[in-house]
Amino acid sequence: MKIRALYLFFLFKNPPSFIKSWYPTVEQQEGKTMLTRAQIETYVKEIPEAIDPEDLRAAYATITGFAEDKSIKEIQSYYSLSSEKVDQWMNYFKFNTVRSENAGKRSSKTKKIENYLKENTGKIVTPKQVAEDVGMSLPTFYNFYNANMGYFKKVKRGSFEILDPRQERAKK
Q1: What are the C-alpha distances in Å from 109 to residues 15, 34, 140, 148?
Q2: pLDDT at position 86 over 50
Q3: Which range marks the domain in which residue 57 is found?
């Protein structure tokens, strides 16, 4: 029995290389986060001890989400927290709340382009100019262009006039 205990102790002290590869090293774990492990531990120590379990979960989730470079909306949806809880703990830990938001879904991108086109009806633009003004990639714009050619009239190579398809249909 003592031999087995010594063997297990030795095994966990010096695991073989094939077992080491199963678990990420400290460097690999810290490379994926904005905060180091020591910084995370200091924030965890700052959490007041006399709080209810839901607030404690929200605090841990906010620290973890911030460490993984998630935006506030991503923290809310991933950990199922209310915006008030996340804001409360972001302010408590004095985290920088200005985070990059994700690009959005297709419907929100389409709405952005459509709003831009409605505001700039009649202007002659290039695809690059529209993509930069709306804040999306050029291939995404070309996908929209190919699916919605009614919004554009080709003026010359690389230039389009923005049209309102409803007015064009009313003219015909």
Answers
A1: 50, 28, 9, 13
A2: yes
A3: 17-92
